[in-house]
Design goal:
homodimer, 204 residues, alpha+beta, four-stranded antiparallel sheet, 54% helix, 20% strand, globular
Chain lengths: 204, 204
């Protein structure tokens, strides 16, 4: 009984987070939002649990309400290369696999215990056709995600390894604090040892 | 008189290219499309002409109907680093500057003589609010652009320099043919000399 009521409470908080995020960009009534929520499922993933593995078709889009997800692939040396993180109110999916239903080249994994609202590709299509206002919401979400990704490409090419780290620290200090250092290193394309050296140098 | 009629002809062809691209993703009537076209201006840029310079606010979104655009920035050594190309039916803008009206950190330049349909940020906002179906169109455009950008990050991290070139050649052979080799090198983060070596090796 207690568990059940906790779960219910949790879903309510999660839906409030999504609602607030929608309302940043679009206008919707409470009634519409109740319908919209019907397209989502609540899921919780344990630390290091995989939401998606390479070779699987990514059938879901994940909206983080608590915790952190990361996307990574294994490079030819078998080393995990993290290409993206998603914290609260960020979406994550493998867009190519999600759109074209092809096997994914990525893993998606929970960095810490993570709560997400999940929408399948079929449900998202139905949602968009039933609530065209959600097209605007996702247009803005993707527009910003694209801009962030373009900036990332720019930084990769134009910053030295040290600058790359300090740029991340300056832009997302909370993030560098929360994420284990070996994953920060993986995101920057460093070895953990190299990151540790830079950090030591900056303290001294 | 002749010039005038050519220009008119040219605008008609350009609008047909945009219309065909819209119709890949959304349904619109001829009448609606005529209204939509009113938000666009036709512009032609000479080879190497800048559409945007670093420090300027990027007030326009460019839809290429003929030619090639590239986006680049100068790295700390003053070397041009190309981060993105746009060929026919691709959009290009500096999304961050366009959305937030902040000075751009990029240049946008015509690689060859290029014809574009131009929409200003104000006009795009009006267009989207008057024709909500355009939200779906831009949602799909940005969703795909984001997916392409994510793949690019993956390739940068996971492929060796040689693989990076052959991957581009395999995926976009027409593109490697059309774009001057020093710009292909700039897109891959190579020196032109290094690219020339790889090409020689692959022929022999």
């Amino acid at each position: 009984m207690l568990l059940c009521s906790n779960l219910h409470h949790s879903k309510k908080i999660m839906s409030e987070i999504l609602k607030a995020h929608l309302q940043k960009f679009i206008t919707i009534t409470d009634e519409e939002f109740a319908w919209i929520m019907d397209y989502f499922e609540v899921k919780t993933f344990a630390k290091k649990q995989n939401l998606l593995e390479e070779g699987q078709i990514c059938r879901a889009n994940f909206f983080v309400t608590k915790g952190i997800l990361r996307k990574f692939h294994l490079n030819e040396k078998g080393v995990e290369q993290t290409t993206e993180f998603a914290i609260e109110t960020w979406w994550m999916t493998d867009n190519i696999s999600f759109e074209h239903r092809t096997p994914s080249e990525f893993h998606i994994q929970a960095v810490e215990k993570t709560e997400v609202l999940v929408i399948t590709s079929e449900a998202q299509e139905q949602l968009l056709s039933r609530f065209p206002v959600m097209e605007k919401y996702f247009r803005i979400v993707y527009q910003r995600a694209f801009a962030a990704s373009q900036n990332r490409v720019k930084y990769i090419f134009s910053l030295s390894k040290e600058e790359f780290y300090f740029n991340l620290l300056k832009r997302h200090p909370e993030f560098v604090q929360r994420v284990p250092q070996y994953l920060v290193a993986s995101f920057l394309g460093f070895t953990p040892e190299y990151l540790s050296e830079i950090r030591k140098k900056s303290v001294s």
